[in-house]
Amino acid sequence: MTTQISALLTPAPSTAFERGTITRRAVRPDDVLIKIAYAGICHSDIHNARDEWAPGMYPMVPGHEIAGIVTEIGKNVTKFKVGDRVGVGCFVDSCGQCEPCRTGEEQFCDQGAVMTYNSKDYDGEITYGGYSTHIVVKQDYVLHIPEAIAFETAAPLLCAGITTYSPLRHWKTGPGMNVAVIGMGGLGHMAVQYAHAMGAHVTIISQTRSKEDDGRHFGANDYRATSEEGTLKALRGTFDLIINTVSADINVDALLKTLKLDGTMVFVGLPENSQSFSVFSLTSQRRSLTGSNIGGIKETQEMLDFSAEHGITSQVEVISADDVDEAYERVVRSDVRYRFVIDATTI
Ligand SMILES: [Zn+2]
Ligand SMILES: [Zn+2]
After folding, report:
1. pLDDT of residue 100
2. How far apart are CA 33 and CA 139, in angstroms?
3. Distance 201 CA to ligand 1 centre (A)
4. What is the Cα 74 distance to its own chain's centre?
5. How many angstroms is it from 60 CA to the middle of ligand 1?
6. Distance of CA 146 to the CA centre of its chain
7. How many whole angstroms from 284 Cα to the centroid of ligand 1?
8. What distance in angstroms lies between residue 44's CA and the mean position of ligand 1's atoms?
9. Phi/psi at 8 (5° precision)
10. With contact defined as beta carbons under 8 Å apart, do 164 and 245 qualify?
11. Which of 22, 192, 206, 325 has a CA between 20 and 30 Å from the CA of residue 33?
């Protein structure tokens, strides 16, 4: 039997959020029903809700940073029990057969993973995200949230956390490495904490010095502001790895030149416009320019456990469902330190 649940939805592109109801499927044998406690606001929620990326499906219920408690399990569920603290991230199903799925990289599924919202399930149903009171998800796509992490600070780890943790791991961040994090927003403040905990020397490159105290508190060893003359020139040949978290246009050449021989620059922020660079910026020092997209389920669990072990959390501002429109405006203005999280009891 399907259930009607309360949700915060946007009926059409760029309209204000309103309370409404959506239908969740009945719990199947492999499903868990989760009572949502908190849902983070990711910048991509805004792009989706405003129809700035792929054509949106409306009404839309965004939210792919979900933390809550299991309230019901299907008869084949073995990984969870009622009362468990759990999380759901950016996708809720994948084909399970292709090479990426078999190697734990479900986010790169050949069939296309089923995204948590604004997507179609393999049975054709539209998916609705975390700005709601409950969600039904297959157990294989649900994560355990360790006791040490509070729900409201755990929620953003499911997207912002894994998006930054995964490339740091993939490019083997560790002691002796010089890592730069570009941008100090929702993603950046997580990247700094992970890179620091993995033992790297961490430099934040931000537009201004306004977040320097926070950045150093999160573990940065150095902080540079691009608004100051000659900043990037002074950093030439410095870094092994750059994690670019900003979604604005950047000077790719100037940043590539701050990489050492064989250094790598990774895009995790998603600028709307095409970016350009000179090939010489790569060939002159065998540098690499690449991108990364969230992480697989196994790695997401590893990230949560690593976060608990190292006391890493997202710094959040908890808001009511009434304040989501205003929060969107503030995210667009970068006026948040560092993630908004919706208290689901207010939906
Ligand atoms: Zn996200
Ligand atoms: Zn697959």
Report:
1. 97
2. 9
3. 26
4. 28
5. 15
6. 18
7. 35
8. 5
9. -105, 120
10. yes
11. 325
Count of other CB atoms within 10 angstroms of residue 176: 8
> Residue 225: which residues within 8 A CB-CB, separation 6 or more?
205, 206, 207, 208, 209, 212, 231
Looking at residue 1, what is its pLDDT? Answer: 78
- Give per-residue burial for 253-277: e unless 16+ CB within 10 Å, then b: ebbbbbbbeebbbbbbbeeeeeeeb
- What is the 8-class DSSP label of residue 15? P
* Mean of pLDDT values over 100-108: 97
Which pTM does this prediction carry?
A: 0.96
1-48 per-position pLDDT tens digit: 789 999 999 999 989 999 999 999 999 999 999 999 999 999 999 999
Ligand that lies nearest to the alpha carbon of residue 105, given by its number in the listed order: 2
State in Å: Cα 47 to ligand 2 middle.
Answer: 25
Residue 152: predicted pLDDT: 94
> Whose atoms come closest to the Cα of 89: which ligand?
1
Cα 291 to middle of ligand 2, angstroms = 20
Q: How far apart are CA 323 and CA 34, in angstroms?
A: 23
Ligand nearest to the CA of 53: 1
